[in-house]
Design brief:
Blueprint lengths: L2 H11 L6 E3 L2 E6 L2 E8 L2 E10 L4 H22 L1 E6 L4 E9 L5 H23 L15
Antiparallel strand pairs: 1-2, 2-3, 3-4, 4-6, 5-6
Helix pairs in contact: 2-3
């Protein structure tokens, strides 16, 4: 199945109409999070902005430590990674998966889990790292 087919089915199954697409990048709206989905070679990528980089160096170090402490479970359990777009000054959640044999059910589940992780990390950073907030889908954090 192609990315165009997957995104069309995803949008239809979720009552989204047609997804906005620009330069081969689809925008999947989720309450509180916008997911960008695109294909490069034989991989599908999901990426979402999580939080802006703090303005002070001290706050940046604190944010980075908080995210580093939580990211191992994210990588192992969800196959997603946290990254920093230094040019834009924003933390991002990132995931890639092979397009070969990717079924709509797998794509749907991946987007849902990715979105849940993104919302968790957005909330986590807003709260200043309060670990009492619950992680989505049994995510190890």
């Amino acid at each position: 199945m192609t990315l165009d087919e997957l995104t069309a089915l995803f949008a239809r199954n979720n009552g989204l109409g047609s997804l906005a697409q620009q330069d081969g990048r689809y925008r999947i709206p989720m309450e509180g999070l916008n997911i960008v989905c695109y294909q490069d070679s034989d991989k599908v990528y999901l990426i979402a902005d999580i939080a802006p980089l703090a303005s002070s160096e001290r706050q940046q170090q604190s944010q980075s430590r908080l995210l580093l402490d939580k990211s191992m479970g994210l990588i192992l359990e969800q196959r997603s990674s946290l990254t920093l777009d230094e040019e834009r000054g924003v933390y991002q959640l990132y995931q890639r998966m092979p397009l070969d044999d990717l079924r709509i059910e797998d794509f749907q589940e991946a987007v849902e889990k990715f979105g849940g992780c993104g919302l968790y990390y957005k909330g986590f950073l807003k709260q200043g790292g309060d670990s009492s907030s619950s992680a989505p889908n049994g995510m190890m954090v």
